[in-house]
Amino acid sequence: MTATHPTPALFALSDIKGPVLRPGEDGYADEVTGFNLSALHTPDVVIGATGTDDIVAAMRWATATNTPVAVQATGHGANFPIDSGLLITTTRMTDVRIDPANRTATTAAGAKWRHVLDAAAPHGLAALTGTSTDAGVVGYTLGGGLPVLGRTYGYAADLVRSFQVVTPDGTLHDANRTTEPELFWALRGGKGNVGVVTQLTFDLLDLPRVLGGGIYTPGKHTEPLLRAWAEWTRTVPNEMCSAFSLLRLPPIPQIPEPLRGGFWARVAITWTGDTEEGERLIEPMREAAPVAVDTVEEMDFAEVDRIYLEPQDPLPARESCALLHDLTPDAIRTFLDQVGPDNPDCPLLLVEIRHMGGALSRPAAVEDAICARDAEYFLETVAVLAAPPAAEAVEQATAALHEAMAPYGTGRTMVNIHGTPGDEQDRARAWTPEVYAHLQHAKSTYDPENLLRYGHTVTPA
Prior knowledge:
By secondary structure, this protein is α+β, with helices and mostly antiparallel strands. Helix content is 26%, strand content 21%. The strands form 3 sheets. Strands 10, 11, 12, 13, 14, 15, 16 and 17 form an 8-stranded antiparallel sheet that branches. A 5-stranded antiparallel sheet has the order 5-6-9-7-8. Helix 11 runs antiparallel to helix 12.
């Protein structure tokens, strides 16, 4: 497919039903601001899309005027400030339709996982959400989607049945495994490189309740808990999904007591099997170190936010990640040397190691662009960016940790939590060389002019 180039006169921003705002106009600042306040956008124009027709019109105008385009739903993944071009926001497009007979959900471009869970829960159904239900469904899924329940059910993209997507030439496509399979492949793990998704349909899970929560110990007991967790993860079944976290929490009212202002080591648990069996399996985590807070209990899956306690208010954040082959004793020692209790000035709010494997290692039923299936663990860091000296300390600590852990890694990242994208070589680390080349071919097919060039993008071949 070759993108068409209609004359600018054929398409005007006045055709758009939603707000069309330029810098300095009332509502512009609110429209461009997302959850991650570290990426302050200043596009030449922002469009608040009210539906698919608005996105089609916006893309046709962008192609006619050769204007680069970015898309934002919630802004959780905003890691690159947009300083020109067109920003399409989809916050008004939050429709969710549940088909309980077929156990599917169909969501519009701006729906959050909270919208999906609230609609699915009355039917006893759940979805492959991540650690925060405030995140947008589309952006999360386009990056593959690493769910809380990943070891049991795989990636969120594995459950997608179809996409409705507008390519940069303004054409509306329906992509699934049999209709436009190349587009379907690129949208599952290739992020937003080939078009703007206006709707997607995916399978739901028959899972009304889980055993979930966190086991917290004071940070000085980090080492015994981490070593016990690493050994424990080698034995647990796929129904056990967990993560080890170090939390250096500020003394602010948004953080509940007694966690507020403390340094904690935590094992977060989500178990999808029998509750009694799950309680038995997690007992070694309760015995590994003195437990200060234990929130593990049976809960409705719609309450999944209680497990990881992600921030609910916007903040300026710096994220990064790496995929690990293994968590050997040497890897644990290296990790502790960098961010353990002997580093009281470590500026990282969260350092987390997620247990992968299980269904996350299983090949997709329909081939996709996800390149994390060979990882046994996933390392993530989050920091809040404040004044310049603090921001510099964050960058130094992040770089030092990743450099030290590199011998234990696969050399790759995951696109959703990669962090601020660097040059092409850096961005390509989210995929294998073969998949990156395949994405470049798809990019050349659907977006040869590279209009979708902001953020974690692929360069056309």
